Amino acid sequence: MKVKMLVQSQYKSELLREGKVYDINDDTAKRWILSGLAEKAPDTDESKPVQ
């Protein structure tokens, strides 16, 4: 699932910047959205895959 970060964070030793779109596994993305760390991004946004 593509998410747009609302905060700067680190995930699996990778820096995730506020305002950028990343492709994250669904379970993690849902937790981040519920906790307010990220929001679901439209499919048209360019994303960076996180390993």
Question: What's a concise summary of this model?
Answer:
With 51 residues, this protein is of the alpha+beta class.
* Pattern of helices and strands: EEEEHEE
**Count of distinct structural domains:** 1
Mean pLDDT: 91
Structural class label: alpha+beta
Question: How much β-strand is present in the residues?
Answer: 35-45%
Give the N-terminus to C-terminus distance in angstroms.
Answer: 13 Å
- SS summary, helix count: 1
Radius of gyration: 9 Å
Q: Describe the largest sheet.
A: 4 strands, mixed
Q: What portion of residues is helical?
A: 10-25%
Number of strands: 6
Could you name the ranges where pLDDT drops below 50 across 5 or more consecutive residues?
Answer: none
Strand order of the biggest β-sheet: 5-1-4-6
Principal-axis shape: globular
Give keywords.
51 residues; alpha+beta; four-stranded mixed β-sheet; two-stranded antiparallel sheet; 20% helix
Description:
The chain is of the alpha+beta class and 51 residues long. It has one domain (2-40). It is built from one helix and six strands; from the N terminus they run E-E-E-E-H-E-E. The chain has one helix at 26-35, and strands spanning 2-5, 9-11, 14-16, 21-23, 38-40, 48-49. The strands form two sheets. Strands 5-1-4-6 form a four-stranded mixed sheet. Strands 2-3 form a two-stranded antiparallel ribbon. It is globular.
